[in-house]
Amino acid sequence: MSAEAAITTVKHREKIATTITKTKAKARLKRMITMIPLAGVAAGIYFEEQEYKEWKVNNVNGAKSDYICEVAKITLDVLDEVLNELPEKLIPSQSTLNSMIKKCKN
Asked: Angle between the 64-84 and 38-58 helix axes, to the nearest 10 degrees?
């Protein structure tokens, strides 16, 4: 019975982690879109570096490229949601989006 409870707890934690990660990906997309002014770019770089450091704590042997690909995959999960909230003029073209994800196709 306790093994079953442990498995349930692990699955629940994984679901929470996935939800948090998707929320961060959605926020990241919004930040990226607003990074046009110089101060916005600096803030965006800072936020991304902080999130990378948080990721690195749980992925000690992971490379930055692993982090980037993981972020890209999660971002794809929430991309439609974010794009639907944007004015049509701000939505990037399909070719732009495709070029951003080519490096991480596995």
From this structure: 120
Give the 3-state secondary structure of residue 63.
coil
For residue 95, the model assigns a pLDDT of 76
CA distances from residue 53 to 20, 84, 101 in whole angstroms, order as listed: 16, 30, 22
CA pair distance 24, 4, nearest whole angstrom = 30
- Domain map (residue ranges) of the chain: 2-104
Determine the residue type at 80. D
Q: How far is Cα of residue 64 from the mean position of the Cα atoms in its chain?
A: 13
Q: pTM score, two decimals?
A: 0.49
d(CA 50, CA 10): 26
Q: How confident is the model at residue 78 (pLDDT cuts 50, 70, 90)?
A: confident
